[in-house]
């Protein structure tokens, strides 16, 4: 037996296995809209970007503070008895108390820290990120990528913006397609490799 709860932009699904599924705006839903923020039992909050989902146990904060993320979310983690662990398909992020963003989509993995310190690890490496630092790399790469400086007002989607830094046009179009549920066709395949730098309103 499963129980389903919904709000304007968020869906909660509790199963007999005691998993809680929280889903943000679906791709193609009305946008822009206020991102959905979920308050966890330890006082931490998770704001979900569109097409994103977190899963956690109903006994969260009793023996651990583990969540699983697919998509993108901004976390504000309160100090607690247990480390706060975010599991993704591409790596694991461990924190004690901080605010940070995680992007975990099939084509890209990014972690950026606004306050505090986090540890990011995969099967081959781990890296410590401090305030104002982030990593961004393709999941097909075994390394975690170099640590780079975050831009102002990071992450962009919280502010209904899209920030691109020498980003291939194909990647730019993929993000616009995901948000607005539209499609692009390039008249010439080479156009997809043109790089874009700038800020777009979402």
| Beta-strand content estimate | over 45%
Nearest-angstrom radius of gyration? 17 Å
Q: What is the first-to-last residue Cα distance?
A: 39 Å
Average pLDDT, rounded to a whole number, is 84
Q: Describe the main β-sheet briefly.
A: 15 strands, mixed
Counted beta strands: 17
How many distinct helices? Answer: 1
Low confidence ranges: 1-17, 25-33
- Please identify the structural class as seen in this structure: mainly beta
The helix content, as a percent range, equals: under 10%
Could you give the order of the helices and strands?
EEEEEEEEEEEEEEEEHE
Shape: globular
Write the layout of secondary structure elements.
Blueprint: E1 2-6, E2 11-15, E3 19-23, E4 36-39, E5 45-48, E6 53-57, E7 65-77, E8 84-87, E9 92-95, E10 98-105, E11 108-115, E12 117-121, E13 126-130, E14 133-137, E15 148-149, E16 161-168, H1 169-180, E17 195-201
Parallel strand pairs: 7-8
Antiparallel strand pairs: 1-2, 2-3, 3-6, 4-5, 5-7, 6-7, 7-10, 8-9, 9-12, 10-11, 11-14, 12-13, 14-15, 16-17
């Amino acid at each position: 037996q499963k129980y389903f709860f919904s709000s304007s932009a968020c869906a909660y699904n509790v199963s007999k296995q005691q998993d809680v599924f929280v889903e943000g705006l679906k791709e193609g839903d009305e946008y822009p809209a206020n991102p959905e923020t979920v308050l966890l039992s330890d006082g931490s909050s998770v704001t979900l970007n569109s097409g994103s989902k977190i899963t956690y146990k109903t006994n969260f904060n009793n023996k651990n503070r583990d969540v699983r993320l697919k998509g993108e979310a901004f976390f504000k983690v309160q100090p607690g008895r247990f480390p706060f662990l975010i599991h993704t398909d591409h790596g694991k992020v461990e924190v004690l108390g901080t605010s940070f963003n995680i992007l975990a989509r099939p084509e890209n993995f990014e972690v950026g820290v606004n306050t505090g310190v986090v540890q990011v690890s995969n099967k081959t490496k781990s890296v410590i990120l401090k305030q104002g630092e982030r990593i961004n790399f393709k999941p097909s790469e075994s390394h975690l990528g170099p640590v780079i400086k975050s831009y102002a007002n990071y992450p962009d989607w919280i502010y209904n913006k899209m920030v691109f830094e020498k980003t291939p046009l194909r990647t730019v179009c993929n993000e616009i397609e995901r948000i607005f549920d539209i499609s692009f066709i390039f008249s010439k395949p080479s156009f997809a490799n043109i790089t874009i730098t700038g800020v777009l309103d979402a």
